[in-house]
Amino acid sequence: MNPTLAQSLTQTHDEIPSLREILDTLTLQSGFNTNAVIIAATLLGIAAGIIGAFALLRKRSLTADALSHATLPGITAAFLIASALGFNARSLPILLLGATISGILGVTLIHAILSHTRLREDAAIGIVLSVFFGIGVVLLSVIQSTATSSAAGLNHFIYGQTAAMLTNDAIIMGTIAFVSISIALLVMKEITIVCFNESFAKVTGIHTGFIDALILALIVLVTVSGLQAVGLILIVAMLIIPPAAARFWTDRVRVLVLLSALIGAISGFFGSSVSALLPRKPAGAVIVLCAGSIFILSMLLAPKRGVVAQIVRQSTLRVRIAIDHILESKYEHPEQHTKADLTLRVMLRALGFTSSLSASSTLTKRGLERGRRVHRNHMLWEQYLISFADIAPSHVDWSVDLVEHVLDDQLIQRLEREIRESGLHLDHASQEARS
Amino acid sequence: MSTATTQTPRSTLDARPEHSADNPLSVHAMTVAYHRKPVLWDVDYDAPPGSLVAIVGPNGAGKSTFIKACLGLIPAAAGTVEFWGKPYKNARAKIGYVPQRETVDWDFPVSALDVVCMGLYRKIGWFKPIRKAHKAAAMESLERMGLSEYANRQIAQLSGGQQQRVFLARALVQNADLYFMDEPFAGVDAATEAAIIEVLRELRSQGKTVIVVHHDLQTVPTYFDHAMLLNMRIVAAGPVSEVFTDENLNKTYGGRLTLLAEASEAVARAQQGQL
Lengths: 435, 275
Known about the structure:
The longest helix of chain A is centred in the middle third of the chain and has 30 residues, at 167-196. By secondary structure, chain A is mainly α. In chain A, 77% of the residues lie in helices and 0% in strands. The radius of gyration of chain A is 31 Å and the shape is elongated.
């Protein structure tokens, strides 16, 4: 805890920050201490983004959650033991050592439960997570009821206190970020093969146990070093959210790792800046909310995997099918009025398939051509189902309805070839299907 | 007694020189338990060089388990496995593997080419990047499986048959002398089946041995020259013309729960402390 920083922050908390203050903070010109906090949080974001990507690919995100919660009894026990032995109980290295030991103990226990019982992983993780956290809370209350006010700082490990980070912390975060980037570059292909296909990796001669231990060690590293800044409840969000958001944008491991690091960095940077400007807001939570916003935007807006893109694709297909149906029936029975509503009629006209908006409108040359093609695909598929897939003609129309619209040109050519080679004639087949 | 039924076929095995260093695979007295339940009992098997071997048997017969135990993916409770007379760790570079298609997450963010390159990781070595020459070799293998135009597709965008061919391409770049393939023909289209069988024959013509878990009994005589009929134990093994008889098939597939299966259940219950 840094008294100067805390003071300077409390003095500004009543006012909405001026544009000048915002610019100063974002360009790292608002004082040494604030800069250290922002840089440290950004570096933590990079490290967590990279390692979180590996955890996601190995499907170990929940293990990270259990691990972070399992650090609390270690922190409190380390405090109790250190004060009993007469050491400085608030010494950060001692507390973090305790956190590391009990975190690893928690993960070991999950594996022990999995290999000796028939419990599933989710149950094992839930049990370890809650029991360890429970022990930690009990020990914390013991400390608070007996020790002096110097014990109060332990609370910060639960919710985090980013503003308390100093230059030293920035250096530690920088080191961790450097280590994770180096490992990512060095063993990216080994991690990828183990995550994708463990049995094949083993046959190839890769020690999968070593890779798993490495991923776990990196998760421990990020969790423990992020405890002070983000807190043990929210640190897991920095491991899970950036890679999950990145996955929406890419189909390649390398890009995923890179984007995840970038999203982590942006969250760390803006989260800690906002919290420096609005000091009553805990930075850990703001960082996580930042990452969460990026996640929601990614989920909605990503071009291929995003929700909006999917909805657009589905509705486009629906509209295309509706239009195809109208064109096909108009092609077959030009004298009939369409049952299409105004919206569809406008679309037909806009696409140049009909000559007017009225329900009795005739097809243009383009419309006729399209209608003919849809009709032909329809018959091709019908014929294929009847003569090759042994489906009763009376059942054919039902299965044809969707398929004929999604066949690509290559498949249609193959259909034509197969039907031609078998000596069948389209017209004959379609009449048979209809009768 | 179930042991009596295993005696007859073993005589065909005895006729061949057992555990010769020429044989790519020699399995002796292998027993495997899965979650403490024995699934393979006392398996003896020798694969001759330059052969295509089909492993057939009903579901739960231990076909995949046999392959995995040979490759050390599942520990064997007893017995030895040797490759050209050497233990697995000294023969690894000469062994290729095609796992079951369903065992991986096909939504994983890699391209077809990335997956094929994995077959070269052993050659590339730790910490070293994938170079152009490696990618060229992987491309060549994809081309051989008729997939060159799909090289940069994410693997989820491939059909089931194409995914299976990607796995085959990955095994081919391993350039092994002995291949284990776990149900490569399961759920593939006709084009893929033809492509796979062509590759198998090519491998055999190069003197390589391929051991394939196979489900379609009808195609065994046309595709393979050796067969292993497995149902928790080896019912018969040898050249297809000798062992692929109605009698042996009945022994393999007839009678759902054999005495052996019941014994396995009992062993599992006892070891799990009557759970």
